[in-house]
Amino acid sequence: MTSCSMCTKWEDEPGLQIAELEQCRVMLNRDQFFPGYCFVFTKEHVTELFHLDPEVRNSVMAEVSRVAEALYTAFAPAKINYELLGNMVPHMHWHLVPRFTTDPLWPRPIWSEAHDPVELTSAEYAGRVALIRKTLEAL
Amino acid sequence: MTSCSMCTKWEDEPGLQIAELEQCRVMLNRDQFFPGYCFVFTKEHVTELFHLDPEVRNSVMAEVSRVAEALYTAFAPAKINYELLGNMVPHMHWHLVPRFTTDPLWPRPIWSEAHDPVELTSAEYAGRVALIRKTLEAL
């Protein structure tokens, strides 16, 4: 699967690496239009939830849940949005997006209106990564 | 929670009822622009994944996974999309959406472009509900 961008994402974007868990890797989304937007993606190239053994699925979902709780703790949003799509990149990657009542698209889905990506400085990326990592480790 | 539309959805739309599972209820979405689009929602009024006990979370996700497999079996889509949002109705409800390479929005998210809802006849709703129910029971 050398052509899968999710298989190489961890190595491709070292500045966005948050944590390596048992089943999944956690990375900050480069576009921080929605502050705290992270990806939680499996180390293995798998696609549908129902392809996983129940034990692996439970472990993946425990990790998704734990990262969601860390985002909730760190950013105090109104809601977390959890999305597993994979139409363009089928390798299982969860979009975990803290949503705020002050965000321009609230309460609509994040995809309902196009926006210019919000890029941070290297120091800002590092700070946000460190905050999420520290919160995650403390859970 | 008398003001929660998800708490009363099962009783409100009997023609869309597919199945009552241990943790969740399964209903067809009235708008069938995306054929097979279902909701899987908890019987309890809960919101975030990380609020659930691990055993309950595992059970909810097993049901989400099983419904996704039934949709995949019944409709043969290219991908299933799984979305837990809840910005407007926080009561936990999963959007399970079979996606086809022939659908007008493929491969973009279902929210990326507005569309007029596709309503079926009563007989067509009943047929689609029965197909999904039968496939689910056979898994």
Secondary structure topology:
Two copies of one chain form a homodimer.
Chain A: H1 9-12, E1 17-20, E2 24-28, E3 38-42, H2 54-75, E4 79-84, E5 93-99, H3 122-138
Helix pairs in contact in A: 2-3
Keywords:
five-stranded antiparallel sheet; HIT family, subunit A; homodimer; 3 helices; alpha+beta; 139 residues
Short précis:
The structure is a homodimer. Chain A contains 3 helices and 5 strands.
Walk me through what this model shows:
Two copies of one chain form a homodimer. Chain A is α+β, with helices and mostly antiparallel strands and 139 residues long. Chain A has one domain (9-138): 2-Layer Sandwich (HIT family, subunit A), CATH 3.30.428. Helix content of chain A is 31%, strand content 19%. Chain A is built from three helices and five strands. Chain A has helices at 9-12, 54-75, 122-138, and strands at 17-20, 24-28, 38-42, 79-84, 93-99. The first copy, chain A, has a five-stranded antiparallel beta sheet. In chain A, α2 (54-75) crosses α3 (122-138). The longest helix of chain A is centred in the middle third of the chain and has 22 residues, at 54-75. Chain A is globular, with a radius of gyration of 15 Å. The first copy, chain A, starts with 8 loop residues before the first helix and ends with a helix. The A-B interface holds A 47-50, 52, 54, 57-58, 61-62, 64-66, 68-69, 72, 78-88, 90, 99, 106-112 and B 47-50, 52, 54, 57-58, 61-62, 64-66, 68-69, 72, 78-88, 90, 99, 106-112.
